[in-house]
Amino acid sequence: GAVVSQHPSRVICKSGTSVKIECRSLDFQATTMFWYRQFPKKSLMLMATSNEGSKATYEQGVEKDKFLINHASLTLSTLTVTSAHPEDSSFYICSASRTSDYNEQFFGPGTRLTVL
Amino acid sequence: AQTVTQSQPEMSVQEAETVTLSCTYDTSENNYYLFWYKQPPSRQMILVIRQEAYKQQNATENRFSVNFQKAAKSFSLKISDSQLGDTAMYFCAFSPDNTDKLIFGTGTRLQVFP
After folding, report:
1. What number of other Cβ atoms are within 10 A of residue B31's Cβ?
2. Lowest mean per-residue pLDDT among A47-51, A71-75, B25-29, B45-49
3. Could you please report the per-residue DSSP string of A19-85?
4. Average pLDDT score over residue span B3-30
5. What is the per-residue pLDDT for A100?
6. B18 has a pLDDT exceeding 70
């Protein structure tokens, strides 16, 4: 149990376009979902926290108009990178938590975004 | 501010040997959770082990065990009988009791040699 999927796993886009990444909890209802960014050989940097039906809470320094997060249901959150630029190229990881799991987060497999 | 420090960027160990990865953290909270996550080359984050701060007994999961020293704010991971499949990045993480957020350390890259 506690499987999280992400789609797509890999995306290449042109500069100026928008890209949407989906994160789904497949076999449980997630009370909270998280979006991280990871640079090569670096740790995970939390971008935002989202709860179903409410606005996401962004970490300091993360542009909320650039990285749009929608948490439409207890099993789906989306991250849209708007007007992507090469510096947005990175590995994006989502995770989900549920109330009963002592703060444990279940991670998706990640999405590699390359902006040309 | 709550921080997590992993002072070993890279470690190596021979197959079947034991290795210990270090982690220290800083917090004023009394109740919290600590985790070790593994990130193999596939980049899928996998939970290795979890410790609740209110429990004095060190957590153990098969070949993985922790040495939790609350007063020293230390949470090291011991891997016994290392296997080639243990080769990965290992992240120590801290989560306050009143939030689901995880604060990650910078990671330790572990290489297991045959």
Report:
1. 10
2. A71-75
3. EEEEEEESSS--SEEEEEEE-TT--EEEEEEEETTSPPEEPTT--TTTEEEEEEETTEEEEEE-S--
4. 96
5. 66
6. yes
By CA distance, what is B10's nearest residue in A? A41
- Predicted confidence at residue A64, as pLDDT, reads 92
Per-residue pLDDT averaged across A45-54, rounded?
89
Q: Is there a contact between A33 and A106 (Cβ–Cβ < 8 Å)?
A: no
Tell me the residue ranges of DSSP E strands in B1-114.
3-5, 10-14, 19-21, 24-26, 32-39, 46-52, 60-61, 64-69, 74-79, 88-96, 103-104, 108-113
- Quick check: A105 and B102 CB within 8 A? yes
| Residues in chain B closer than 8 A to A103 (CB atoms) | 33, 95, 97, 99-100, 102
Q: Is A31 a residue whose pLDDT tops 90? A: no
The token duo for A15 is 């500069």
Residue whose entry in the numeric block shows the structure tokens 């098969």? B62
Which helix (H) or strand (E) segment holds residue A5: the answer is strand A4-7
Q: Give the pLDDT of residue A101.
A: 63
Beta bridge partners of B108: B90
